[in-house]
Amino acid sequence: MFITIVAALAQWERENLGERIRMGLQEKVRQGKWAANVAPFGYDIDRENDKLVINPLEASVVRRVFDMYLSGMGIVKIASKLNEEGMKTKSNTKFSINGVRYMLTNPVYIGKMRWNYTVHQDQYFEVEEAAPAIISEETFFQAQKLLEKRKAQHPRTTTSEYIFSGVAKCARCGAPLSGKSNGQGTRFYICTNQKIGTCDLPLIKEGFLEERFLQYINKRGILEEAKKEVAAHADIEEKSDYQKEIEQIQKELAAIEKRRKKWQYAWVNEMITDVEFIERMKEEQKKKSC
């Protein structure tokens, strides 16, 4: 009983401390101060005043990225060009596709600071004129319109003959693989990060992937399980689509509740951090709402 009480008090104190820190950081941002440890690309941190100041060299790269994108160059080509020229990010690494996309969508470059963009999105807010602008608002919003226009999935993607394209992931960097042909009927897959020079995964033939995929499903017994499932339900009277949908939803809700309890157990036993717990719970809530 004593251990349980002490553990409950420790948990309560941790929650209070976390809440106080979050509130302190939010208030700092509302005052136009930079609360993170690392400045976004294009800026440095004035540690005396906790303000963002323009880094002239990086700012010129930011302007160039927006100019290249608005001139019709794609995100992949922009990242590739920057890497070819030896440009580096704040962490002294090569530019990635996601890094360039994040730069194009970050309103800090027009002086607008955002908070809780990726975590605690229910508490998201923006602060106007919190940083010196690097580009004009017109340039920024033109880029947003172009990004939205290009977001729609191309019809070729949905009817592609490369069934593993976008589904299979690179074992070295985690990026999706993209299908290609050598023009002689041989299909292969290439890591999308290889296009921008940040991954050295060799080309993988489609036949190799197909063989490994079949080995995987045979090892897991998926086909046998499917056959048993069909045989078990062959003699059951077919239910209405509406009733089937209700039963499916009930199963999904039960599974979500079961996972929520597991996340709670992992959090209480400090197997995951507070941030990870909140993210997992938000994901489960989103699934439940859908």
How would you write the strand order of the largest sheet? 5-6-7
Described by its quaternary structure, the protein is: single chain
Assign the CATH topology of the largest domain.
Answer: Hect, E3 ligase catalytic domain fold
Tell me, briefly, the overall form. Answer: flat
CATH secondary-structure class of the largest domain:
Alpha Beta
Number of helix segments? 10
Tell me the number of strands.
7
Mean pLDDT: 80
Distance separating the two termini: 40 Å
Question: What is the succession of H and E elements?
Answer: HEEHHHEEHHEEEHHHH
- What is the makeup of the main sheet? 3 strands, antiparallel
Rg, Å, rounded: 25 Å
Weakly predicted, low-confidence segments: none
What structural category do the secondary elements indicate? mainly alpha
Percent in helix: 40-55%
Number of domains: 3
Write the CATH homologous superfamily of the largest domain: Putative Large Serine Recombinase, Chain B, Domain 2
Structure description:
This protein is mainly alpha-helical. The chain folds into 3 domains: 15-151, Putative Large Serine Recombinase, Chain B, Domain 2 (Hect, E3 ligase catalytic domain fold), CATH 3.90.1750.20; 158-236, no CATH class; 239-290. Helices cover 53% and strands 9% of the residues. The protein has helices at residues 2-30, 56-70, 75-84, 97-105, 137-151, 155-158, 206-220, 222-233, 241-268, 274-289; strands spanning 43-46, 51-54, 113-115, 125-127, 177-181, 187-191, 204-205. A 3-stranded antiparallel sheet has the order 5-6-7. A hairpin with a 4-residue loop joins strand 1 (43-46) and strand 2. Helix 2 (56-70) packs across helix 5 (137-151) and helix 9 runs antiparallel to helix 10 (274-289). The longest helix is centred in the first third of the chain and has 29 residues, at 2-30. It is flat, with a radius of gyration of 25 Å. The chain starts with a helix and ends with a helix. This is Recombinase. Residues 232-288 form a coiled coil.
